[in-house]
């Protein structure tokens, strides 16, 4: 396996030429439509590294969710998260399903952390290929609270977080009833095997479930991209692998939340328990597919 930035230097140079992404996120640019000029270069990387047997299982379940979205229901996709190519590979495999898959990919909007725009231009270019709504994750703010010593600096960061997230939620409420499929990674970060906490869902996911009509869970087995612990995102390692996505049938979000809440005692953290149930569902799907590898 080689770092993406080494193996695909020529493609990345072309992506940089086509990039028009904002390197600073403000309340005015939280919604960023995908840049199709960049997509072709990422497709090359995905296509060259998808191994035999790769594919999208239970596509009919995704189509059932898309049908609900077309009927005016707000629809959420909750996906496992292992690498920064989770969305690119999913998007690519969707478009291999014909016209219906292409339409679903066009309607897909990912919730993305602001650091993907503000880290460096290469990461921004990769992110820019796909439509997304940018948020300021609570995990990032907690990190700043632990490290920032200057009170004014921390206050400015908190104000930035509030303004970005307020604008994002306002835009989300508009888009989610416009035949869109909103994709969220419930862990809030990529899974790192040396840090089990990165596979735990974040409490904020309950707020999404509370405000959406339906969701589908998407598990991922295998990956063409591996996190490089010693490098930045563009130094992640790429190589051929079998990758399989599986999609659950649409799940009524309100019924799901109520079912979990009825199992809890008064003192338990309901928000965390609900997202824990989501993660358990994803893990069960993942383990089922794993047996077929």
Major sheet details: 9 strands, mixed
Low-confidence parts: none
Label the structural class.
alpha/beta
- Number of helical elements: 13
**Average predicted confidence as pLDDT:** 91
Percent strand equals 15-25%
N-to-C SSE series?
EHHEHEHEHHEHHEHHEHEEEEEHH
Distance between the termini: 20 Å
Helix content: 40-55%
Radius of gyration: 19 Å
Number of strands: 12
* Shape annotation: globular
Structure commentary:
This protein has 293 residues and is of the alpha/beta class. The protein has helices spanning 4-7, 9-18, 36-49, 59-70, 86-95, 99-106, 115-118, 121-128, 138-147, 151-175, 205-211, 253-261, 270-290; strands at 2-3, 31-32, 55-57, 75-79, 108-113, 132-135, 181-184, 214-221, 225-226, 237-238, 244-247, 251-252. α5 (86-95) runs antiparallel to α6, α9 packs antiparallel against α10 and α12 packs across α13. The model has no long low-confidence stretch (mean pLDDT 91). It is built from 13 helices and 12 strands. The two termini are 20 Å apart. The relative contact order is 0.19. The strands form 2 sheets. Strands 2, 3, 4, 5, 6, 7, 8, 11 and 12 form a 9-stranded mixed sheet that branches. Strands 1-10-9 form a 3-stranded antiparallel sheet.
Write a brief structural summary.
The chain is α/β, with parallel strands linked by helices and 293 residues long.
Q: What secondary-structure arrangement, pairings included, does this model have?
A:
Blueprint: E1 2-3, H1 4-7, H2 9-18, E2 31-32, H3 36-49, E3 55-57, H4 59-70, E4 75-79, H5 86-95, H6 99-106, E5 108-113, H7 115-118, H8 121-128, E6 132-135, H9 138-147, H10 151-175, E7 181-184, H11 205-211, E8 214-221, E9 225-226, E10 237-238, E11 244-247, E12 251-252, H12 253-261, H13 270-290
Parallel strand pairs: 3-11, 4-7, 4-8, 5-6, 5-7
Antiparallel strand pairs: 1-10, 2-6, 8-11, 8-12, 9-10
Helix pairs in contact: 2-3, 2-8, 5-6, 9-10, 12-13
